[in-house]
Design goal:
This protein has helices spanning 10-21, 46-54, 58-64, 86-93, 101-110, 153-158, 221-227, 235-240, 271-274, 283-301, 303-330, 337-346, 354-363; strands spanning 2-6, 25-30, 41-44, 66-67, 72-75, 80-83, 96-100, 117-119, 123-126, 131-134, 137-140, 143-146, 166-177, 186-189, 193-199, 205-212, 248-254, 262-263, 266-268. The chain is α/β, with parallel strands linked by helices. One of its GO terms (molecular function) is monooxygenase activity.
Amino acid sequence: MKVIIVGGGIGGLATAVAFHQRGLEVEVLERAAAFTEVGAGLTIQPNGLRALDALGLGDHLRAGGPADPPAGIRNRRGRWLVRNDVDELKRRFGPWATVYRAALVDLLRAAVPPEALRPGVDVRQVHPDGTVHHSDGVSTADLVVGADGVHSVTRRSLWPALPGPRYVGYTTWRLVAPPQPVEGSVETWGKGERFGHVPMPDGRVYCYLMANAPAGSRIGLDELRERYARWHRPVPALLRSTPPEAVLQHDTYELPALPSYVSGNVAVLGDAAHAMTPNLGQGACQALEDAVTLAHAVSTLGVRPGLAAYDRARRPRTQLIARRSRQAGAAAHWTSTPVTALRDTVLPLLPGALFSRSLTPAYTWTP
């Protein structure tokens, strides 16, 4: 059996690893000239680590540097709005890990035969029968997997009449600041904007910023430094220490719920199937779950029954997590002064276990 995978990011390469380990022939078509990843840091949560364990790769991340769960949420003056019991989260759900996105891609790529990787191939059309039209010609396979991101050609080919990704109203910056002490993984909420920092194993600090803005807005580091200059420490210092070339900006999109993740002999996964807001940090973890689930179902049941089983297992779960992710970040982007003041008053009064209960469905997944 041959599997063609469209897209060579985290989800696509994890899919290739999963099928290759089951003895299937794989071919990965990647539009970019090389299999790499631009971006900053990435937190792999317990469910994502279990998916990597199923691929035999989880211990590589644990060895690189375990991470603590999110410590909580502050307001811009530094007052805690939500304070998590970090030790209890680790006890209940297992370890977290942090990794550079490029390092995770390298780890997955090394587990795929080099001859299966085809960079510089631009896929233009995918048909339900497993035919793929691309810049090098035409390829066919028993199964095609679209792992080609939020603007997926595979998804548009199969469901051209369905609505595409929608802009959620805020743009996102990601950067890695030089080594400096920070108090764990913390997110800070303002009015229509927020800032998060996550310590990395080598001492550097992965930071992300989100702010309400029209789609296509481009805001540079100098303006960010000014906007966040009066936030609590270490926010201003992290921005001051970061060079402009280390900052990446992307508008934030999510995908309306698809009626199916499969059509004929083709499946979509990761952002191509369920692109979600980054509020829960589950995007990469859900793609890893998809890859493991799909390979197991198809290799066990065959293509068509396996695809049906994959859709039944993954669509309800990922669409639930996408909804919860949207809800989790909504309050950070309120802009009314009275409403945000009420938010900052009420959140500290909520039960401390509310956060862990809301994320139990995400964290407790097992292959």
